[in-house]
Amino acid sequence: MLKQYSLRNLTAPEVAQLVARNTDANHAIQDAVLQIINDVRERGDESLRELTAKFDKIALDKLYLEKDDIEELAMTITRDQQRALEIAFQNIHRFHSVQLRKERSVETMPGVKCWREARPIEKVGLYIPGGSAVLPSTLLMLGVPARIAGCKEIVVCSPPQKSGKINGFVAYCLQLLKIERIYLTGGAQAIAAMAYGTDSIPKVDKIFGPGNQFVTKAKSLVQGMTNVSIDMPAGPSEVLVIADDTASPAFVAADLLAQAEHGPDSQAVLVATSQALIQQVNSELAKQLEVLPRAEIARMAIDNSYAVAVDNLQEALSFSNTYAPEHLILETDEWESLIPRIVNAGSVFLGHLTPESAGDYASGTNHTLPTSGYARSYSGVSVDSFVKKITFQHISSEGLNHIGSTVEILAELEGLHAHKNAVSIRK
Amino acid sequence: MLKQYSLRNLTAPEVAQLVARNTDANHAIQDAVLQIINDVRERGDESLRELTAKFDKIALDKLYLEKDDIEELAMTITRDQQRALEIAFQNIHRFHSVQLRKERSVETMPGVKCWREARPIEKVGLYIPGGSAVLPSTLLMLGVPARIAGCKEIVVCSPPQKSGKINGFVAYCLQLLKIERIYLTGGAQAIAAMAYGTDSIPKVDKIFGPGNQFVTKAKSLVQGMTNVSIDMPAGPSEVLVIADDTASPAFVAADLLAQAEHGPDSQAVLVATSQALIQQVNSELAKQLEVLPRAEIARMAIDNSYAVAVDNLQEALSFSNTYAPEHLILETDEWESLIPRIVNAGSVFLGHLTPESAGDYASGTNHTLPTSGYARSYSGVSVDSFVKKITFQHISSEGLNHIGSTVEILAELEGLHAHKNAVSIRK
Description:
- The structure is a homodimer of 427-residue chains.
- By secondary structure, chain A is α/β, with parallel strands linked by helices.
- The first copy, chain A, folds into three domains: 3-22 and 236-364, Rossmann fold, CATH 3.40.50; 28-105 and 116-231, Rossmann fold; 396-424, no CATH class.
- Chain A is built from 15 helices and 15 strands.
- Chain A has helices at residues 12-19, 27-55, 67-74, 79-96, 136-149, 168-176, 187-196, 213-225, 249-260, 275-290, 295-303, 313-323, 356-361, 397-413, 417-424, and strands at 3-6, 64-66, 106-109, 112-120, 123-127, 153-157, 181-183, 206-208, 229-230, 238-243, 267-272, 306-309, 327-331, 347-350, 387-395.
- Chain A has a six-stranded parallel β-sheet, with helices on both faces.
- In chain A, 58% of the residues are buried.
- The mean pLDDT of chain A is 95.
- The interface between A and B is large, with 129 and 129 residues.
- Strand 14 (347-350) of chain A pairs parallel with strand 15 (387-395) of chain B.
- Chains A, B: Its EC number is 1.1.1.23.
- Chains A, B: Keywords: Amino-acid biosynthesis, Histidine biosynthesis, Metal-binding, NAD, Oxidoreductase, Zinc.
């Protein structure tokens, strides 16, 4: 059952309390992760083998699989499954390929030409979670934009399965992406390996991908300890559903549960224009939970979630912008007019027939998104995340005539005479 | 005098050593900064007043200046200075305003429509360094893209001058940007104030701007401790000049010194196609240093710098890409053909008449750039830095027919049945 609040009765500090996600540093996790990072940095592959034996219960000789193994594993899945992965790949590719466009050059003054050019980040590391749920979709979500950007070296790490290998779905996605090697290491140790490099695993410039608390903490830590960068800080997944009287309680409940089954710390928030709707959704939740394989997990997440009754859709959007959800679903007939008012969200699902799970897999948008309120300042992963934009400028002698004295005056007023001289000496 | 190396005689580990910047954590700084952050978080404005008295030697009553004060201060500068700041403002505005463009919507399958829309980050904090050198140019570099992005609240912090106010140049830039308030606080305490909020200073979503080691450390720390984000990790400024026989040793020396005068920890690297050129540049350096007001600082930086002789421009570019400089100057006749080979750099200055100082002030490009090798994965500040891009998707009933079974198959193979049900229930 979702806890129920009425926005009308909440004070500002109570709202702030409701939208706050748990951001307390867990020092027990931090200490364990720091120890892993230092061990991998010092002992490299040897440490990775030991940690894989300890955490994944597998003794690995070679720390990676290559083309032949991948080919063999990819053949173990059905043609229907292959076809579904292909469609997801194509849609993700279609959506992301419009993101890289040339920008026009600007002549800011006669003879002063400035422009930006994108360059791929050369070496990127993709972390694909394994363990209880293996997520081939995450490999597509990270691998496709990396390929479109043109990254030279794509290092993929994922914990090995009980077989000491990877599953066939991940293998098939590697084939679709033309990636010929995968490193069999997971957890904080995989992040450390990509940040520092080991004999087997190359050091990368930027690390991408979701993971559990250990992986997330490791990403934050290596970002501060090395000059590797990361896609974004990540926390437990979350959805906020805005529903009015046009919504189907069954659809709403299904969407909340799709979020809830991710993990006990997932959050599913319902913002509804009536108390009656909240009650209907609650009974649908009870009904659907009965037949859900991961009901135990989902029930814990639902207990960790809540519903807020509001007077109208404007209030609903205002609450949503304050919450800044990773996923926002508008289960309303009138979704189009609401779009301009959405300020903070990761990915938005419009109308009654756009379930969030479509975006998780196959609509084409990226599912690696900012959580925990980071949607206030972060975008989800896109081709932009795999490039940097370099600025260029060229000044002709005409340009130097136009801009010279301005630079000289500004350098002088900041007290930087060598800056001034770099212009004066050229005049 | 620049230390001299010949690339031909260097081993790979020696090159790695040369391009490494000092990234060691200084725990003395970290501890001091953590104490400041915690104090500001707990005691707010009271702590800010005490720290300003301690570090800036000024007893402040009100922690900010408003419109009338700003207007008065702005009138204290000359018309020529105003005009130079206006031209810089215009050029920066021209260059940055092409950066925000609508992306087209993509129909990934019939009935499945996906697109991205940019939204301004609502509350941004700009840190403008004060102290020995006051940098009004930094206010323009951060304020102009924030305005173009449409940020609702722009919080500017800068340490007070001896007068207890700000200087006229900064005041005039505030007027150009239509920012009507500036907060008189600097250092780590300013960063803490913007991250947590105090009675006077609003909490922001993202913090921008360069600063000394304390400011930089504070930005890294609050990024991990709160859900505020930062523009980029920043370190000492740096330039790499590539010069061949067409270069003027005097221009090259002037550019190296413009970098060197920033601070003793700045780095100015020369990559030249001949030893003779390096010697000529070294004598020019000696000559120009004699008349430089900040010669003492520049000399320390030059001692901290070096020159590398290479056989050809291809080698020069390869070294530069390994170094990943904040600023790259190509003092060659043949710069155009080299552009495609530039992979890692913050901002690039092309040809003999494009001094780096033009980009610092007025060419139009941004001067807030990645240092310390972060150019491998970070871009400089742009309008992109002040927005986030939200993905949207709408699926029609035709779309659901097309995409439904793909989502169902993929959800099932990942073992997420509620994800599958969110589609099935709608069919």
